[in-house]
Amino acid sequence: MIHVITSANSAQNTDLMEQAFRLRHRIFVEEMGWSAVAREDRREIDEFDDEHAVHLLAVEEDDVVGYSRLLPTTRPYVLSTHLPQLCKGTPPADPGLVEWSRIGVADSARTSGRRLNPTALAILTAIVEWGLPRGLHGFVSEMPTSWLLRLLQLHIHAMPLGLPQRIDDVEIVAVRAGFDAQSLRRLHAMRGTTASVLAPARGGIIRLAS
Questions:
Q1: C-alpha distances in angstroms, 14 versus 11, 35, 58, 196?
Q2: Can you give the pTM of this predicted structure?
Q3: I need a surface site. Which of 17, 25, 127, 204 has the fewest CB within 10 A?
Q4: What does DSSP assign to residue 90?
Q5: Which SS3 state, helix, strand or coil, does residue 68 take?
Q6: Which of 28, 20, 119, 10 is closest to 69 using CA atoms?
Q7: Please, what are the domains in the chain?
Q8: Are the beta carbons of 19 and 27 closer than 8 angstroms?
Q9: By three-state DSSP, how is residue 109 classified?
Q10: Are 184 and 129 in contact (CB under 8 A)?
Q11: 207 exposure class (CB count in 10 Å sphere: 0-12, 13-18, 19+)
């Protein structure tokens, strides 16, 4: 299940968030070599992990096995603050758009082959399932160029915001992606079920901070 954690329920989910920050450190610092965000406590946390962040945690038997973060684009976010060179123009600012970043899956939940990883698919489904009722219609993200086709196959309407650039030896492109009810139906079809991926909220009503 995907747990959605914001400032409204973070106090009830400190154990899961501790796992999430340590998972981020393993993926982004230890595996991907992001030395600039390394910390001695082995928790990967940055300036955007504040009251405006929405954390999506894939949890299996109380273990966090996947993670990503949503940030409102009406405030400073990763693309607009640190990677504006990936955009041909001004990075988007739209209350219906969030930034999807820090996308990672634990080694124990990774799969091989051409099919989308089930944990990553569940997280993407959660964005659409959770976002549509809250007025979201899309996201911006910085991702490997190889992901573009996969998004289109999932009926996520992705368009580059600029030309790809090599960052840490990976060709990265900034995209603006739109989703709707058709996207959710396609995601359900890919998962083989219409059952919700969202776990029941623990500790309060979860809203998108603005």
A1: 6, 25, 15, 24
A2: 0.92
A3: 204
A4: P
A5: strand
A6: 20
A7: 2-191 (3.40.630.30)
A8: no
A9: helix
A10: yes
A11: exposed
* Closest C-alpha to 6, from 40, 57, 46: 57
Rounded Cα gap, residues 98 and 139, in angstroms = 5
- For 115, the token pair is 């099919």
Cα distance from N-terminal residue to C-terminal residue, the chain? 25
The alpha carbon of residue 5 and the mean position of all alpha carbons in its chain are separated, in whole angstroms, by 12
| Strand pairing report for 54-60 and 63-72 | antiparallel
Q: Residue-wise pLDDT tens for the chain (210 aa)?
A: 999 999 999 999 999 999 999 999 999 999 988 877 888 888 999 999 999 999 999 999 999 999 999 999 999 999 999 999 999 999 999 999 999 999 999 988 888 765 688 999 999 999 999 999 999 999 999 999 989 999 999 999 999 999 999 988 889 999 999 999 999 999 999 999 999 999 987 654 445 554
129-to-134, 141, 201 alpha-carbon distances in Å: 10, 18, 14
Q: What share of the chain is helix, strand, coil (3-state, %, to 5)?
A: 35, 25, 40
> Running DSSP on this structure, what letter comes out for residue 114?
S
Q: Is the distance from CB of 65 to CB of 59 less than 8 angstroms?
A: yes
Question: Collapsing DSSP states into helix, strand and coil, what is residue 61?
Answer: coil
* Residue 176 token pair: 């603006």
